[in-house]
Amino acid sequence: MSKLNRRDFVKALAAVGVVATLGKISGKSVKDVTSEVSRKSAKGLYPSAEHGARYAMMIDSGACIGCRTCLHACKLENNVPDEPSNMEWIDLFEMENTRPVSEVHGMPPADSSVDYTESPREGHWYLSFNCFHCENPPCTKVCPTGATYQDDDGLILVNYDLCIGCRYCMAACPYNARQFNWWDPVYQPSRVSPIDGEIVPLNPKVPLRTRGVVEKCTFCVHRIRDGNPVPRCVEVCPVNARHFGDLNDPESEVSRLLETVRTHRIKEELNTKPMLYYFTRGVKWKDDGEKI
Amino acid sequence: MTERQEKIMRPLRTTSREFWPFVTALALITVVFIYAYTIQLSKGLGVTGLNDITIWGVYIVNFIFFIGLSHAGIAISAAVRIMSLHKYAPIARMAEVLTLASLMMAGSSIVIDLGRPDRAYLMVVNFASRIGASPLLWDITAVATYLILSTTYLYLPMREDLAICRDRFTGWRKRMYEITLPGYEVGEEKVIKRLAWWMAVTILPVMVMVHTTVSWIFSLLSNRPLWFGAAAGPYFIAAAVASGIASVVVIAAILRKLFHWEDLLPPAIFRGLGNFLSVITLIYLYLMLVEQFTARYAGPAGEFFVSEAWLFGSYATLFWSLTTIGLVLPCVYLLVQAFRPGKINITLTSIFSLFIVIAMWFKRYIIIVPTLTVGGSPLQTYAPSWVEITILGGSFAALALIYTILLKLIPIIEMEEPPHE
Ligand code: SF4
After folding, report:
1. Rounded to two decimals, what is the model's pTM?
2. Residue B215 lies in a domain
3. Which residue does chain A place closest to B222, by CA atoms?
4. Using one digit for the tens of pLDDT, what is the confidence trace for B68-124?
5. Which atom of ligand 1 is found nearest the CA of B134?
6. Are residues B244 and B127 in the same domain?
7. B368 → chain A, closest CA residue
């Protein structure tokens, strides 16, 4: 190959590269291309998203009695492994009454208790966390494979088949909402078939995870996209502290709540625009069942 | 064959009595390292001390550390080439080989940290859609580019020396050198020299970008105090330069003693490297100071608590010993030496350089771990497990093993006599 030829060849190669890249992303933001690829590859894992919905959850932190019903219902609903036992999609923290939410800096709050044995307790309130499904998620941006992505209805999901377990998304999440499968998931004997040792998924609609991938709250994507109006945690809450709905639907419960109560979100300064709102109706829970 | 060439070929020609026990020991540690990794592969990352709060630990520290070491080779040899610093030519290749070996270890550190290493190829498959977004992918791309460039950069100017080796040896060794020399022509050095000069010019900015992208993995995360910030790039580069140059000083001193290369590696080289090292360590200390001052003056929650943990909390012993013994002390010694004309003490210079190298590993640990644990649940703290410690020790043994093997195969000093200035 003469010198000139070689140079031409390199030039042609560069041109092909540029054209291919431009053709791929022209007219679309990088984010769109990314989510398109991810959504396509996650097909079959979740029901497809309804266009135009914007799901949000609102937690009445004044009403919550810290009973952990949501936490356990969630574990069953979503086939969350029983071992390791701290694998939970919802975290509940017992806070001193004098601690405002806005003072929470570390996540989870440093002087709170996760392993309280009695609730509700005088002088305390309960802060619950699950994935915030941010409108501007920092976690999906950093993923090197597109395993975690934002869907059309705003849900942040993980495609467990694409995740390489680098845990970069966990580093990027300001809310510690993500859990990693450090071990093979272990289920209690009652959830394992005595005949062939296969795991009997309590919920066949939710895919099982393997060791080495990241998982987290999905807002019960298999329910809300399949005719069931609310996630399991919202359904089971005995004091109705959790509310869920579509913010784009003015008639939904969350839309109406947003108009009537004062709300706030956590770490707004990070511009993540979380879809989990907290509110109280202005009173704190008291031991005699009355409100102060 | 000139006397100089014979001297340089000493490690290739002769094998001392201590060589085999040494290599066997390194190989054994490497085997234990591989064994520990297979345990992790079969059981999961749960065998580490990591948890959902402290998601990264020793492996990521290793990754940053090895990337830092890899800096040395290119910085030295590119600077030698571009600025015609012939005085340092004898250490150029030593440094380049260190680049190569530590880049390999950096790559494996990342793979070791993955939960599903079997799927690592997905980063390539989904490259087009993810390269616009993920700093981790930027970094892997940068490191791969750096690896390819620096291997080429090491290899091309070395062909001349490999040809000398080919003519010097007989039997299987001759054939081995023949294989490494496709299309070799006598007199090609002239073209290669020009090529290498231009490569040096290209490599320097790539080197800067590699260390900057490593810092971006962390410094672009707005939720992580003391990771987030614009100064992370220069901060990381300073650390990389310091640890890289320091490790070259250590290696050069060891080889000098081992192969009696006193005249090939004159004290002037160590003096120059020591001077440079003192300045760069001083810059690093200065960057640490401004960082701490910013974190503490107004004391915003995140930064302040992490800084408290560094200076007075559970990481204080580590922090203060690495800063005083590992950075300030060597810096002062090297500065004093820089201002005193006359003979220099090569042994002390290399010992203090070793201090800097070790301090830089622990400094990366201090950067990574407290930011994750502080503010997190007190139930989940981090201490490396035996698997992690074995892998840590093993990766250093593997690095030494790769280096030793390369030392036996290629002339570690350029054969051509540097022109006298
Ligand atoms: S852990 Fe999985 S989902 Fe998270 S960034 Fe890495 S590959 Fe993506």
Report:
1. 0.91
2. no
3. A270
4. 998 877 778 888 888 888 889 999 999 999 999 999 999 999 999 999 999 999 999
5. 5
6. no
7. A171
